[in-house]
Structure formats: structure tokens, C-alpha cells
């Protein structure tokens, strides 16, 4: 997606050979127009899949998911990282290991909002080592839902998360794949 | 906002005399069409205020803020509850006390995304005792930004947060004000 790559070039900050910061457009400040274009692109790529629900993870997955949900006219469910006062239903749970924080944390989805009749599109802001994606996948399997695929805004192609999911036979659509962040430069994979 | 009240009546769950759960439409599952209507309503109520930025708090404030930001054509900044690997800039900070959790937690906004030239609309999903709102207000004052007002999806009118903010001379637009959750029933304030 050329517009996205252009914005990553202009507004992204390469912090190290593995860390790209896009806080100016998605992860802290959000550009609503860009998110709408991203939502439309996901919608286009999955429009024939019979999607009934989008699943994402708080917080940065919410914006692109909401715009895709608006376009596809389906609800968005965001997995929560903390149990809340009002999240008291029966829950699907998964552990997500963070390599950066070197710790596991639990994520949750209420059983009220994910069913075996659902055809699910998972959307997330980044895929790197794929731990969050595997956690979401686990909960979708617990629910017995059909998985249509993953829509990822930015894939770190130099880490194996995207391919780990593809090797499960799952469709992964990444709008920008980054092959390298070496020397402070973002090198995109050619389409 | 009649559509919102109708959806709260249909999909909200009263857990106690002080807790209303709207996980089916906003706080866990999100209805994108409803969020778009909510965003349009906030936009309408603040369209002449010269808004340059919307500020909210992760995670449940993001969806209504994004839709208002789309309509007003301004960026959305969501205050973060945890320091992230990539949030390394100078930060505005505020403490938010949670009466339900009986603990304080810090919230952050990068100084890169809030400036004294900004005219800010704060949007949040709920206002109850107003602690989160006061935390956001503190950061806007630290930045020296102009505050246009608060847009709140659901105000718990039987708690004093909304009035605490109004007593500061700040415009607060709540799309649904609840006067009571007694006896398991949602009683709305008349417009």
C-alpha cells in the first residue's frame, strides 16, 4: 500500500535495527484519514470472505480494525490485556510472550462476543515474532470460529511471525512489509 | 443522543447501582456504525471551536475519538497507560486514581504530539468521578494548549465528575447522561 509506505518513510522513526516507531500516525497519535484508507484496503482484500467479525488486540489495533469494520459493516472485538471490573463473563484466554519485555501476559476475549458461527478477520498494527497473533489465533480456535485470515498494517519481514502464521495455511495480508531497518533506513519489500 | 440511549437500553447491562456494562457496543465489542454516529455528533457539537486535535485515553476512548477525528479532519492522540518501548520522548504525565481499583496509575502523552498552539477536544467513553478527565486536563494544561471542551459518550450523572469539570468553566457535552442505575434499570436524564 503505497500511501502507507510513504507515511512510514515520512513519519516513522527507526530506533534500532529492530524497532520502528510510528507513534505519529498509529501508535500514539492516530491519523484518521490514513486509518480509513487502511480499513478500506483490508476490506477490499477480504470482501469476498464472508467476514462476520473483526478481532484485534488493544490498543493500537483498534483504529485500523474500526475502519475496516465500518467498511465491511461488521463488529470489532478487541482482546483485552487486563481483566476489567465489567469483564466478568466466561473468557477465552491466551498467554502472549513479549520478547522485548521478557515476560508473558494474559489476553482475554469474552465468550459472549466470539462464536463458532463467526468468520473472523484478525487485524493488528504490527507483526514481528508473531506472539500476539498466535494468542489471538488460539482464542479463535477455542471459540471454534472460522478464520478468514490476518490483516497486518506493518509486517517486520526480517522477523518470522508472518511466516509462522502463513505456515499454518492462513492467509496473511500485510500492507507494508519491511525487510530491514539497518543503518537507520526503512527498506520495504517490493510488492 | 436518542440512538445511543436506545442502544444502551438494548445492549447495556446494569451490574450494580453504580456499574453499567456496555461491552457489547463500545468497551470490548465495538459497533463501528454507532461509533460513526457518535463521532458525527461530537463533530457537530464542536464544529465551530477550531479544534486541531482530539485527546483521549486508551483503550475505550479510541473508537469514538477516531470517528470524531475523521469527521473534523484532525489527528487523535491517545494517552497511554504504560510506558512502551518506543515512548521515549519527553512526556507529559498525570496520576489517575481509580476508586474501583483503589490505586493510582500514571498516564502519559509524548510532548511531540501536544503543543500550545493546539485547540483540544477531549473525548472519553465514560465520565464517573472524573479522575481520568482531570488527568487529561492536567496534561493539556502542562502543554499550554487551549481546551475547547470535553465530549463524553456516557456520563454517570449520579457521580460528580461531569460537574467537577463544568465547575472549572469547561464545556462538557455528554451524549447520554444517566441519573440512576437503581433496581437494575437505566434512568436517563431528560434532554
Write a concise keyword list for the protein shown above.
homodimer; 191 residues; alpha/beta; 6-stranded mixed sheet; two-stranded antiparallel sheet; 6 helices; 11 strands; 31% helix
Question: What does this protein look like?
Answer:
2 copies of one chain form a homodimer. Chain A is built from 6 helices and 11 strands. By secondary structure, chain A is an alpha/beta fold. In chain A, strands 5-4-8-9-10-11 form a 6-stranded mixed beta sheet, sandwiched between helices. A two-stranded antiparallel ribbon of chain A has the order 1-2. Chains A and B meet through α2, β3, α3, α4 and β5 of A and α2, β3, α3, α4 and β5 of B. β3 of chain A pairs antiparallel with β5 of chain B, so a sheet runs across the interface.
| Run of helices and strands of chain A | HEEHEHEHEEEEHEHEE
Kindly estimate the percentage of residues of chain A that lie in beta strands according to DSSP: 25-35%
In the sheet with the most strands of chain A, the strands line up as: 5-4-8-9-10-11
Q: Please give the radius of gyration of chain A in angstroms.
A: 16 Å
Which spans of chain A have pLDDT < 50 for at least 5 consecutive residues?
Answer: none
What is the multimeric organization of the chains shown?
Answer: homodimer
Helix content of chain A: 25-40%
Strand element count of chain A? 11
Instruction: Give the helix/strand class of chain A.
Output: alpha/beta
Form type of chain A: globular
If helices are DSSP runs of H or I spanning 4 or more residues, what is the number of helices of chain A? 6
What's the N-to-C terminus distance of chain A? 9 Å
Largest sheet of chain A: 6 strands, mixed
What's the rounded overall pLDDT mean of chain A? 95
Give the largest interface.
Answer: A-B, 40 and 40 residues
Amino acid at each position: 500500500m503505497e500511501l502507507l509506505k510513504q507515511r512510514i518513510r515520512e513519519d516513522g522513526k527507526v530506533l534500532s535495527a529492530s524497532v520502528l516507531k510510528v507513534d505519529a500516525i498509529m501508535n500514539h497519535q492516530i491519523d484518521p484519514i490514513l486509518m480509513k484508507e487502511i480499513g478500506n484496503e483490508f476490506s477490499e482484500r477480504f470482501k469476498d470472505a464472508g467476514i462476520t467479525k473483526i478481532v484485534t488486540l488493544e490498543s493500537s489495533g483498534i483504529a485500523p480494525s474500526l475502519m475496516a469494520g465500518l467498511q465491511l459493516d461488521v463488529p470489532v472485538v478487541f482482546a483485552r490485556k487486563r481483566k476489567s471490573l465489567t469483564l466478568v463473563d466466561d473468557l477465552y484466554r491466551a498467554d502472549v510472550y513479549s520478547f522485548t519485555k521478557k515476560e508473558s501476559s494474559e489476553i482475554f476475549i469474552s465468550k459472549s462476543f466470539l462464536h463458532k458461527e463467526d468468520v473472523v478477520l484478525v487485524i493488528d498494527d504490527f507483526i514481528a515474532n508473531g506472539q500476539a497473533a498466535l494468542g489471538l489465533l488460539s482464542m479463535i480456535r477455542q471459540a471454534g470460529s472460522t478464520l478468514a485470515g490476518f490483516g497486518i498494517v506493518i509486517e517486520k519481514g526480517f522477523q518470522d511471525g508472518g511466516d509462522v502464521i502463513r505456515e499454518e495455511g492462513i492467509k496473511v495480508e500485510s500492507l507494508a512489509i519491511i525487510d530491514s531497518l539497518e543503518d537507520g533506513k526503512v527498506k520495504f519489500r517490493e510488492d
